Amino acid sequence: MDNGSRIEFTLEQALVGAARDCPPKLAAALRYAVFPGGARLRPKLSLAVAWACGEDDQAIVNGAAAAVELLHCASLVHDDLPCFDNADSRRGKMSLHRAFGEQIAVLSGDALIVLAFDTLALGAHKHPTRLAPLSIIVSRATGAPGGLCAGQAWECEDQIDLSRYHRAKTGALFAAATMAGAAAAGVAHEPWRALGEYVGEAYQVADDIRDVAGNPETMGKPVGRDEALARPSACRELGLRGAVTRLNDLVDLAVESIPACTRAAELRALIRHQASHFLPADIAQAAA
Predict the structure, then answer these.
(1) What is the CATH number of domain 3-287?
(2) CB proximity list for 161: less than 8 A, separation 6 or greater
(3) d(C-alpha 192, C-alpha 19), whole Å
(4) 204: helix, coil or strand?
(5) Verdict on whether the full-model pTM lies above 0.85
(6) Which residue among 32, 33, 120, 252 is the one 20 to 30 A from 95 at the CA level?
(7) Where are the domains of the chain?
(8) 170 Cβ contact partners less than 8 Å away, ≥ 6 residues apart
């Protein structure tokens, strides 16, 4: 299988297992939250790092990558809720709470978080010694003090450090993706943290730019939400051109941070290629 197929297959297996004897609305909502997916950047990053490190078992790598994506899907469900962004659409369709109601949306986000750890454990059954570090990587990217929950909570504070907010809201899960890929391949994971944090912050800066200059029809979600919600944004702090400069600097830092590994040169090229798609060409040219 190619990387995209590996991810989709593993996610499908996880959703089929979760649907057994599950309340029908919840089962349908879980599938709605996961399929069809977006770019699957985070799990692809996990697979790329594992490949660069010489993976020896696809099952544990697939499980780690799928776990990261399930957590991302859960974060989108919660992010769209009326108590946060109150978003009407996501990935080109109605947000989950609009389609299924707020109660099912809250439960779906919670269930996806639990399903992520279930998927992680099932994938690691042949390598139990790798499961403990993988679990710690994923759990710390999800909760407090510096995970997804902390990132969402920063939006509720009166004063926000933009870099800390970006590291928690977006960078934490990207860092989990790179570290989980390394840990799943059986190599030291901590040296891979910087790559994920830089890529994650770059992606968040790009998201801030798209929120200002993007097209909601092509993006599949509303724009102008940062301004409407007075949310921290690279564009508000640096201006549009400054944000684009910051994005390019972060991509350079990400590439430079890649540790020594079997396929370092190929991974550097892959990171630059993926990052070139963070912004639509018309936005990049307009801000240049």
Answers:
(1) 1.10.600.10
(2) none
(3) 34
(4) helix
(5) yes
(6) 120
(7) 3-287
(8) 151, 200, 201, 203, 204, 207
